[in-house]
């Protein structure tokens, strides 16, 4: 592994690398890249770069298809910052329930009052709020973060309703038994005092929280968004806040429209901004790169399929990044046999337009015969 860091990467994570030269100063010497927020859309990578690992979940700063065509696998680190986001969601939940922000501002505005202790007793009634115990919260999206939020809210005595049409068996098993699951979004939100969003941003989810959903929500509900700002239709949200149908909007994403709306509590994208989360993301990214470079395994890729071939035990492991074209596997097998190779293991997975194949062989193969095939994007031998 010869990784180049485009951003400052957690020292705790980098210190886990046993070889001091595993991180290089010149990208020309690198076979992989570690990145956080640096924009890569204008970067044309050298042929020596095999993989990019984003220390975080979002990958909008990376040209996924462009790199896939170059045979460059892009990784992210889903779940590594989940606890940090969960804790900020709980903070937002409490800030929306109790006027803590207003109370704190009152104290700061009255620091010159010599009798502030007595004055505060008279003023505090203006900042009274509600407890969250016994209230209902709808958790939209039950991925790693959504499950953590749902379970934490249940532990705090809230009634929790979950909605996720793509709920995995693994995440379903992690949900506490008292979390109620609804198969329809409308049913999940209709009785909720709080609605919190934890879904990825895709074409199908963009502006998914809009007037059609707002009309189904309980009047005076609180909406929390710690996923992506464009999951919510800002124009529709503004109307709901102004007419009082939505009591508060709590979000981790500041944009010019939202910050000027009434009854908004907004943070400057602090969800994953903890030392622990940055360490966890960087360590996961490093582990993903090492496993890919040393064993050819892909875990948490966003532009290639995940594939686990285990620790490399064969004499040679051929790793092939290619287009998802019918007949490729048969061609690989036929070609290797024709040149005298004996296949021990062959695994292949596809994802959209791209596919990845790992072949273990016991004899050295001239990979140029594979490179010459149509649809081949990159071939390497471990």
Give an overview of the whole structure:
- By secondary structure, the chain is α/β, with parallel strands linked by helices.
- Helix content is 30%, strand content 20%.
- The strands form 3 sheets. A 7-stranded parallel β-sheet has the order 7-6-5-8-9-10-11. Strands 1-2-3-4 form a 4-stranded parallel β-sheet. It has a 4-stranded antiparallel β-sheet with strand order 13-14-12-15, covered by helices on one side.
- α1 (11-14) links the parallel β1 (3-5) and β2.
- The longest helix is centred in the last third of the chain and has 21 residues, at 275-295.
- The model has no long low-confidence stretch (mean pLDDT 96).
Shape: elongated
The count of DSSP E runs of length 2 or more, i.e. the number of strands, is 15
- Mean pLDDT, to the nearest integer, reads 96
Q: How many individual helices? A: 13
| Unreliable sequence segments | none
Percent range of helical residues? 25-40%
By helix and strand content, what is the structural category?
A: alpha/beta
Provide the gyration radius in Å: 25 Å
Strand line-up across the major sheet: 7-6-5-8-9-10-11
User: How large is the share of residues in beta strands?
Assistant: 15-25%
Largest sheet: 7 strands, parallel
Quote the distance from N terminus to C terminus: 12 Å
Which series of helices and strands comes N to C? EHEEHEHHHEHEHEHEHEHEEHEHEEHE
């Amino acid at each position: 592994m010869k990784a180049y860091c485009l951003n400052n990467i957690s020292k705790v994570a980098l210190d886990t690398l046993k070889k001091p030269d595993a991180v290089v100063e010149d990208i020309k010497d690198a076979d992989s890249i570690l990145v956080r927020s640096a924009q890569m859309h204008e970067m044309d990578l050298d042929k020596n770069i095999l993989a990019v690992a984003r220390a975080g979940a979002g990958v909008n700063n990376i040209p996924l298809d462009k790199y896939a065509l170059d045979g460059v696998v892009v990784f992210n680190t889903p779940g590594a910052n989940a606890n940090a986001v969960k804790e900020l969601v709980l903070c937002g939940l409490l800030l929306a329930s109790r006027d803590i922000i207003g109370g704190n501002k009152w104290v700061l505005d009255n620091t010159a009052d010599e009798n502030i202790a007595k004055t505060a007793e008279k003023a505090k009634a203006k900042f009274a709020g509600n407890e969250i115990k016994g209230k209902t919260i709808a958790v939209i999206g039950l991925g790693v973060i959504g499950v953590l939020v749902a379970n934490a809210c249940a532990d705090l005595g809230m009634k929790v309703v979950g909605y996720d049409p793509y709920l995995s068996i693994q995440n379903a098993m992690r949900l506490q038994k008292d979390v109620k699951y609804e198969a329809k979004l409308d049913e999940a939100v209709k009785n909720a005092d709080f609605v919190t969003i934890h879904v990825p941003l895709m074409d199908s989810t963009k502006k998914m929280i809009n007037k059609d959903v707002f009309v189904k929500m309980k009047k005076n509900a609180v909406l929390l968004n710690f996923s992506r700002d464009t999951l919510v239709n800002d124009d529709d949200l503004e109307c709901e806040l102004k007419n009082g149908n939505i009591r508060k909007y709590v979000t981790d994403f500041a944009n010019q429209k939202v910050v000027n709306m009434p009854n908004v509590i907004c943070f400057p994208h602090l969800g994953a901004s903890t030392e622990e989360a940055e360490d966890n993301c960087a360590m996961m990214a490093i582990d993903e790169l090492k496993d890919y470079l040393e064993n050819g395994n892909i875990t948490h890729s966003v532009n290639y399929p995940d594939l686990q071939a285990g620790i490399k035990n064969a004499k040679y492991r051929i790793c092939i990044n290619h287009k998802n074209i019918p007949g490729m596997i048969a061609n690989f097998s036929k070609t290797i046999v024709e040149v005298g190779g004996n296949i021990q293991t062959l695994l292949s997975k596809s994802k959209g337009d791209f596919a990845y194949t790992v072949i273990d062989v016991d004899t050295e193969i001239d990979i140029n015969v594979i490179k010459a095939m149509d649809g081949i994007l990159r071939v390497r031998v471990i």
